[in-house]
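Worked example

This section walks through a single chain of length 183. The input is the sequence exactly as stored; nothing has been trimmed or padded.
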Amino acid sequence: MGKISVANSRYIYINEDKWPSGSVDIHHVAVRRSSLKAFFVAILLLPITCYFFPFKENSAAPFLWSFMLCGLLLILLLLWKPVEKESVIIMPAFGVQLETHYSSGRIVRRFIPAGEILKPVLLECVTPVTCYWSLCLLVREKEELMLVFQELRPPLKMLLPLWKSLSASIDNKEIPVTNREAG
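Given that input, the structure is written out below as tokens.
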């Protein structure tokens, strides 16, 4: 599929390079799934199931109901993050296509024509609890910024190569030179 450029404990960044240079540039940010999560959730739900099981009664109905309830909770906890990956497909001649792939199989696609994109912007979002980076697009005749990643919050080291590709694709030559690159 492509090469893994950056990976951390939550996300994997993949840049596909199967297309000729300059024609199509595809970037994926995928969520890493852990098989240990299901194991820990099962260990957590086993005491809950035993608590609901009445040891005095000989009927299996309460046990089945509590088992089904815990199974439903297990499914909900495993599907807590329904997004599998978000992709950015850069076609310099046409525009940018943003895709969100859900675990249910649903894919939401948004297309922004190249003539409407003014500039890609990296923003630092600060909340009372956390601080994270997001990549946005300044779009012509829109009052608000358009988020590239609607559901995921990849770290800055995954957003930088995508920002550079978007800047190069819209012929934006205003990429600042940092001290590390200059010196």
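What to look for: The radius of gyration is 22 Å.
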